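Batch manifest, entry 17 of 40.
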Amino acid sequence: MALASLNGIDFAESQEPGLQANIDIYGSDNCEDTARTRKHLESRGIPFNYIDIDENIDAERKVKELNNGRRLTPTVIIEGAGNSYRVAEPSNEELDRILDDIRERAA
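Output type: structure tokens
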């Protein structure tokens, strides 16, 4: 994965042309859907931040707040092209639709 620099800060750059998005995955290492989501983004060369809610009580609290008190993993927050998306337990197809939307809006 390529690194880019902005104001002296290095960050991962997507290998997908035209995609500029910040992706946070709140999940659990024991969750099959979390593993699938991570693997899907990795296979597309899309960088993301992974937050293990089993190891971070504040992150677990945030997931519950976002999901009406339910601990849904993964909960994915995607920001890009001036929009913010939040999805819980997304399918790969749902993630792809969101990422395509971001790419189109940024074009």
